[in-house]
Give the backbone structure.
Amino acid sequence: MKNIRKVIIPVAGWGTRSLPATKNIPKEMLPIYNKPVIQYVVEEAQRAKIEDVIFVTNRDKSVIEDHFDYNLQLEGVLERAGKTEKLAQVRAVAEMVNIMSVRQKKQLGLGHAVLCARELVREDPFAVMVGDDLMFGGVPAIGQLIEVAMAEKMPVIGVMEVPFEKVSRYGIIDGLEVSPGIFRVRSMVEKPKREHAPSRLAIVGRYVLTPDIFDYLDKVTPGHGGEIQLTDALQAMAQKSGMMAVRMSGMRFDAGDWAEFLTANIYFALQDEDLRYELLELLKNFVQFQ
Ligand code: UTP
């Protein structure tokens, strides 16, 4: 398998769970401490040596592309004010990766969003990272998948164990563990009822795929919620040509879920030594008043 240099990051959804915050601001631009959600996702891709990012966007999301471009006016202001550290931070974001984008004109689901990027991917294997799923730990989550995909020469999907009461929110796999944390996928099912779930291994926002997935996506009929589900195409691909799954290590936050979004904010703020003490004091006082 060729090296993975491109990633598709779908960011075209409506973000209805996060309303009213997302009425005019994309969910992917909401801040987690001092950076927008999407910057953490792109940083993970960059750490895994991915060079080209393809955003699948809609008409209201151009601010996401702008975030990864130069802002010469702002840079001039920071330069003249001698704010060299902030200047370096702002420039670094523009220099992280190459950005391309494609419009998803109708929000027909994650599978459809991936299909929209077909012409930009062409012949090479590629990664998919869901734009509101944050993963943290030592080795970047997408890097863990790339390693297995290169070794096995097969598409790989990222999974994490979730409690049984949450399986109905995810695509769940049935897999044979061939080595610790690495599975050969037998089948998968989208949002199963608890009693029908084949395992607790949920598909969570990281994939390494080959371009034949587009042929499977072409044939998918709208499934759960009237959307073109990526899981349906993955299921067909796993049956036909095989697929691996990797139980990713590290932590995960779904930025579209308020409890997880707020926990991620506190987690990252606590990593900042300058803020940590003051934040803990404020939280302690606040909890005492509850
Ligand atoms: P989600 O289902 O979490 O996002 O999709 P959503 O649809 O924006 O949010 P809710 O459920 O209404 O709150 C996961 C990712 O896939 C993108 C979203 O932008 C998000 O980053 N997505 C989803 C698309 O690009 N297109 C779609 O049609 C659906």
